[in-house]
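Lecture notes, structural biology module. Today: joint structure prediction for complexes of two components.
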Amino acid sequence: MATKTRKKTKALGSPIGGDDRIAIIAGVRTPFAKAWTVYNDWTEAALAREVAAELVNRTELDMELIDSLILGCVSVPMDGPNVAREVVLRSQLPNSIPATTVQMYCASSAYAILNACGDLVSGVADVVIAGGVESMSAARARFSLPLTHALQEVSRAKKLQDRVKAFTSIHARDLLPDTPSIAEPTTGKSMGDSAEDMAKQFGISRGEQDEYTVMTHHRAAKAYDEGRFPEVMNLLTGENFDQPVARDTNVRMDTSLEQVARLRPVFDRKHGTVTAANASPLTDGASMVLLMRESRAKELGYKPMAFIRSHAIVGLDIQKVNLLLGPTFATPIALERAGMSLKDIDLIEMHEAFAAQTLANLKIWGSKSLTKELGLDDAIGDVDREKLNVNGGSVALGHPFGATGARLVMQLAGEMQRRDVNTGLVTICAAGGLGLSMVLER
Amino acid sequence: MARQSAEKLVSVEIEHGIAYLRIDVKGQSVNTLSTPMLDRFEEILGSLQHDATIEGVVIFSGKQDNFVAGFDIEELLAFRDNAPGLRALVQRGQSLMASLEALSVPVVAAIDGACLGGGLELALACHGRVASENPKTRLGLPEVQLGLIPGGGGTQRLPRRVELSVALDMILTGRELSATKARREGLVDDVVHPGILLEVAAKLVRELAEHPRKDRALTEAFTDPVKLAARTPARKLVFNRAREGVLEQSGGHYPAPLRALDVIEQGFADGFESGIEAEGRAFVELVPGDVAQNLMNIFFMRQEVNSDSVVAKQVKPLEVGKIGVIGAGLMGAGIAQLAAYENYIVRLKDANDTGLGWGLNYIKGQFDGLADRRRLTEDEADVAFGRVSGTTGYSGFKTAELVIEAVFENLELKQQVLAEIEALGNSDQIFASNTSTLPIGQIAKKSKRPENVLGMHFFSPVHKMPLLEIVRTEATSDVALATALDVGRQMGKTCIVVEDGPGFFTSRVIGAYINEAGWVLQEGGRIEDIDQAMVEFGFPVGPLKLVDEVGIDVAIRAAKVLQEAFPDRWRAPESLAALANAGRKGRKNHHGFYLYNGSGNGHGKKVDESVYGLLASTDRRLVDRELVQQRCWLAMLNECAYALDEKIVRHARDVDIGVIFGLGFPPFRGGILRYADSIGLDRIAHQLNQLADLFGERLRPAPLIVEKAKRGQSFYG
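The predicted structure, tokenised, for the full assembly:
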């Protein structure tokens, strides 16, 4: 069936890997859960090893064949910052598997997949597991830098008076911990502030955002009810493993426009439109996909879900443009590399950091003037909402920073398979003004 | 390198004034002490004494993970009827240790690996001890486990080296210490990386040469309050308490710990020399005693069983890396936990989330417990737990080389599970049932690959019970059997291989025993009297308490299988069924023979008097405990004889190993068949006939017993 697809689209440029494409064999993820809830006591490695175990067991993969584990993680734990290696050492994967942790903010696990593509194409790996994990619940507050330095000095001091002296330069404010924040270091703006900016700059109303929010929740809930999330594994949580979690905990079928509209804006309390409901929540979760070249899949008897045709990553000048515009900048390049245009794409998964960010990007895509303003050659095209995030997006499902990219890829590949369509696009905005897009085919 | 001399047992190498004594018994995997070893040591000490160039001595082992495992037990056994020879041997050993201690230059033991029994006594006679960080480094005096006491000065030197309470614990229970714990207790001077063990030992030798330790007898008495206490009348209290503890633990069946206590106490009362003399005397008296002989014999039988290849040696077991376990109840979870602990990757399945969650929680609890007891670090425990993954489907089972089912004891269910596993299509996969009673052949009746099917009957709690009963059918292949044996031994189990049949070996034997206890109950015996009788006989718990632990429902189901299998001679009392019908399942539903409403200590200790109301006759009367003991153990013996006669079990040896390590038959009796032999089968047959006349035909002696009795034979004869 793969060859048939390629015949149909023979006008396109050649996919990554040429005749021996990069196959997505299977994907598994935990249910995503709001931070500080059901996964409160789970470390990043504990969450991710469940996914790794489930993935190798579901695929009945001979673990000795795995050449590499690459995981994205944004806020890595201080004990064991190479989370991927911790996962190998603490799971049933053989210790001989090399493991790397990569960081590209919200695109981290998608970037892990691109890393895997590179290794598979260059021939240094035959079989790779790529994905990511994030646990906001496990992220710890840090001491302030002055306090950290003082404590260092204390540990080196030999005399009591030196120990006391070490603290003399400490101010009361230094005793407050640095809590992990989600602000852009160079602009000082939080992601929420940037979303507010976008809504205001591109004229995305509160009503549009809220309507979008309700839709993405309803789509996600319906997709669950209709069994369209086979990649979501069941996880037994709780102190006694007696609380099964089978679905993303943020998804709500009963969400209504009235309910969503009642919420107060969070980032700009006076004139703002971005609320806790129309933004993706802080989330814990892990996701992984199994990747190999088409020929290897054949040898091992796997039927690939989809192939990675092209991809692009971009950096934006965030002093000039809004930092959540990554999809707008990355997508034309990925499409060009695929030899396609937006109308050739059957399904789109766009990361919903915020409803405002999603809607603003879509608005730009369809507008000649807005794209021109941003310095792009042409409009990307209008997106048929029936092809976009058809089973819900990050606003509903949740957004574990390190795990979302692989979630998008497996969700898209799965839906392409179910609908028996040929092409798909994944596109992600990431902090730091980064963007990543990927074109899949079958 | 100045001078060298090599020898089979101990080689000496002298370097920079230090003599390195390397113990390496050729042809053995571990070092043991023996008469030739004593000869060799005497010879070496003799030459060292007259060598003025020597500044000190380091004793170490040439074996991997082993310093010295103790005295050669085989040699000891040979002294059974040779008291004078034994006395001479002990004296030689003791004086060798004394002359080592009296050497004018310091001696340091460099300990890497097991340092047990005579090995630790040797190390104790040295002036210093350095141990390696190797987890295999264990220090202990396990003699009591063989019915003996340390005979090389250990009873005197250890309590003078570490706190009295620690020494008593080690000597009276055989508890071993890790290197770190030994350091904390002051038993060793330093714990270092194995790579620098000899270097550090040599350094300690030079330190001791420069600053010899003060006379320990003088310092200890005035600095250590516990040791001080041990030297004052307060020590009477310490010893009395220890004596009470020993009696409670051993039920008075094991003389060795009591003798050890006497000997240690004497050393404190009358001094080191007197203690050494008492130690030697006690040792010589204990060796030929029944208990020591039985325990030493069990030790050998167990070694035999552990190294028995059963199938032809060229049959290679499958290399098992992943084990699938079906059923996450107490047995399934226990098997999964032990497998993960022993480095297997485990896929655990239960029918639903509730069952699976229970199992994962049990496994996590076991690993947490190991971390709490510092047997593993928290991270090691987490790594081990990470080898287990759970599911409610069959994903991941195809790639398991071995699947063990531990689902509910129901034939159709087990057949269905086997069919589902076979449908996954791994034709090499071995399927083991953990059933305790259902014949494997029946489970495999519809199997496509019956050659891959066998029984692996674990005992509860899986991580603790040392026995694994492997059941083969006529169809079971040698590869399947070899694989089960290999995995079982990897899991640290002593494996007996038995033939297929209802209740195979162990369940029918324990079934007969419980059955008889049920009859005594039905006839008017009190629960506590029955259980107490068998505890006095030497079982760890009484039969009715055991039923509570196993589950009354489980016991009844097993009884039913046996009743159907042996309709002519098996008679089940109504008493047990009456409890089961009243919904009592034992400990698990807090309704059994005992009360489970108390917390902590009270839980399950008191008899639930309301049980009697469920029985046909509510009158209770006094029963003769000796008669209860006779009925129960002889019922068990009789069933063993049937099983042996039917060739369910291959050797008398396997019967005895099975009842001791699987069913709790008192080890000091040497095994059920050996105990019967010691009484004489003629008398046994007579007793059984008497019991049959009084209490029922089920107690009529098995044909094998009658026949052997007639011919004047014994089980081992």
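Point to remember: The two ends of chain B are 57 Å apart (CA to CA).
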